[in-house]
Amino acid sequence: MMLFKLSIKNITKSIKDYAIYFFTLVLGVAIFYVFNAIDSQTVMLNVSSSTSEIIRLMTTVLGGVSVFVSFILGFLIIYASRFLIKRRNKEFGIYLTLGMSKRKISLILFFETLIIGVISLGVGLALGIVLSQLMSILVANMFEADLTKFQFTFSSSAALKTLLYFSIMYLIVMIFNTIIVNKCKLIDLLHGNKKSEKVKLKNPIICTIVFIIAVIVLSYAYYLVTDGFGTSPLMNAISGILIPIALGCISTFLIFWSLSGLILKIVMHLKKYYYKGLNSFTIRQISSKINTTVFSMTIICLMLFFTICIFSSALSIKNSLSGNLKDLAPVDIQFSKLQESLSKEEKENFSKEIIEDYNTTVKDTLQRLDVYKYLKDVVDINIYRLEEITLKDSFGDQIEQIGKDYPTLAYNVREDLVKLSDYNRLAKLYSKKELTLKDNEYVIISNYKMMADIRNISLKNNTKLTINGKDYYPKYQECQDGIIELSGSATNTGVIILPDNALEGIHPYKNVLAANYQADTKEEKENVEDIVSTIINNHFNKDTLLSYNTKIDIYASSIGLGAMVTFVGLYLGIIFLISSAAILALKELSESTDNKERFNMLRKIGTDDKMINKALFNQIAVFFLFPLLLAIIHSIFGIEFANYILKTIGTESLLSSIILTAVFLVVIYGGYFLVTYYCSKNIIKERN
Question: pLDDT of 361-378, one tens digit each?
């Protein structure tokens, strides 16, 4: 009981020391609960069955991410507990001097960790429950759900999961603290904060060479993820992205290592700056811990880099997936059937019913299945393919140059060809621009910007296509915006529109039918879709190979995928940001504890508090800004790479996402910086 009371008294007395630790724990608990409570928040939402499936998948993914997050938070809590023990070395030394055993000191730490754990769990869960109600509104907004049934929700499963995970973390911390205390020596506890790390001045020549090598390696990594992506042999496979990541990590470490030896040497030669005010003291302070900071700075820099890229990309993906769905899915449903002749092997594998149905049109199959009556605004077209018209043929004389720049393209794939009259009927239904062609002209439609840019190279060179001995030339020098089949993203790599007589007498490759439902309201359309889906699915692979895609499914999957990416990005981004900021904050508070005697010496020789506070501010600012600046440089190229990848779903700008990411950085990272400065200022003002 006496040790328990002493623990409470210690916590009360050291409340300033525990402030950042407690704040980080509360924030961690709240965030953990909020993202694990999403499944309970979505139960009340009135959504379609397909959306419900996507939400279940999203909560499963978030549950898996939570395991990873728990490891990060566990490491953070252990790191923070090291700071608290170090902060109280002298106190524990006095306890040992007075005859208290290490076992009792361990019990004091056990009770303190237990008390802080219980309080942080309670406060964090309370905050999480409040924030989860706001998350419910966000989830409903993302899934375009009806909020009329909104009510206060509490997720018992998320609460139990949070209690279990954090209890395990605190238990590990207690064990860790016991081991640390048992290894402590009395002399280290009493005089550890007076020890100063020996400044090892590294050879400036070696540091310069290492720095140059690191910059070259980093520049090559930047090249691989930007101009080199898809063209460098190292980046031909997706696994190739691991190479620039590894190079980036190694070069980041080398940059910090080399600069730790160069900065002091360079600044010492700038005598006017070095001897101005307390600059010499500040530089020596930074240098005194620089050797033990290199690795942690590298980790923090990389965490900040991932935070910026994850935030920016996740938010952009969400906007992209939901931003252009009206253009990508302009009608309610689209059916398609292959029309090419079956091979001998296929005939042996397919049933008699499928073989009989195979060469019939989509319309005939829908009438046979009694589905056609549910449709209106029906347009059906044929898509053709010819052996002599491949992607390689479309590039004409430019194939050699394009092949060098884009070696991973499948150049032997046959092109999709559509008659002009068919396309115009479909374009009218899709509310797209109708086309006109002369007898010897063609047009390529595409909405996939990256592929359209490649095709434009050959179109600008007036590349001709030869079909049945007749030459056709491009009407436009660039691709026109357009689609044939519904999709959740801009994936139409190119369809060639030709005069009708160019494809007369050619057997179609595929038959496509687009239509709207015989329904007006959202509920009526969902009911019709359920009926149609049930009929088609019951017959698929039995007596037909008819496939279909619907606007409702595309909307649900696109919005669901966007929401899942957003939540996972926010979850990981916030945790990474809090962890990196908290590690820096705790490290700087620890440095302030070690340097308290040195600041007291400055006061004794007449230095006023204004100069001391400025020196402290500059010291902390360097440690916060140094990894952030390099992380921002990394992010410029990382975001450019992300933008390159995101073009496949129609993203062209990350500006709004970058601005929102910057706001998060300023609020969280900047907030930790200010709290660290004010807490450090209070620490160095304390008198022994």
Answer: 999 999 999 999 999 999
Q: C-alpha 374: how far from its chain's center?
A: 42
Classify residue 344 as exposed, middle or buried by CB count within 10 Å of its CB (0-12, 13-18, 19+): exposed
Closest Cα partner for 116 from 73, 173, 72?
Answer: 173
Give DSSP secondary structure letters for 265-312: HHHHH-HHHHTSTTHHHHHHHHHHTHHHHHHHHHHHHHHHHHHHHHHH
Bridge partners of 443, per DSSP, are 497
pLDDT of residue 375: 93
Place of tokens 């037909």: 544
Give the three-state DSSP class for 406: coil
Contact 475, 463 (CB under 8 A): no
Tell me how many degrees the CA angle 323-326-332 measures, rounded to the nearest 5: 140
Mean pLDDT, rounded, for 283-294: 69
Nearest to 340 by CA among 505, 504, 509, 506: 509
Q: Could you give the 3-state DSSP secondary structure of residue 411?
A: coil
552 vs 329: CA distance, rounded Å: 9
Residue identified by tokens 């600069």 is: 259
Task: Report whether 33 contacts 125 (CB < 8 A).
Answer: yes
Is residue 514 classed as helix, strand or coil in its secondary structure? strand
Sequence-distant contacts of 471-477: CB under 8 A, at least 24 apart: 471/440, 472/440, 472/441, 472/442, 472/498, 472/499, 472/502, 473/440, 473/441, 473/442, 474/441, 474/442, 474/443, 474/444, 475/437, 475/438, 475/441, 475/442, 475/443, 476/443
pTM value is 0.72
Within 10 A of 3 (CB to CB), how many other CB atoms are there? 15
Question: Locate tokens 């053709």: which residue?
Answer: 384
- Give tens-digit pLDDT for 121-168: 889 899 988 888 777 777 666 666 555 555 667 788 888 988 888 888
Residue 226 or 582, more confident: 582
472: left (phi over 0), alpha (psi -120 to 50) or beta: beta
- Terminal CA-CA length for the chain: 29
337: part of which helix (H) or strand (E)? strand 333-338
Helix 551-594 and helix 609-646: axis angle, to 10°? 160
Bridge partners, 510 (sequence order): 338, 383
Kindly state the helix (H) or strand (E) to which residue 512 belongs, with its residue range: strand 510-517
Query: Residue 158 and residue 345: Cα distance in Å, rounded?
Result: 53
Q: What is the distance between the alpha carbons of residues 410 and 397, in angstroms, rounded to a whole number?
A: 17
Question: Using an 8 Å Cβ cutoff, are 422 and 513 in contact?
Answer: no
Task: Please give the angle made by the CA atoms of 554, 571 and 226, to the nearest 5 degrees.
Answer: 70
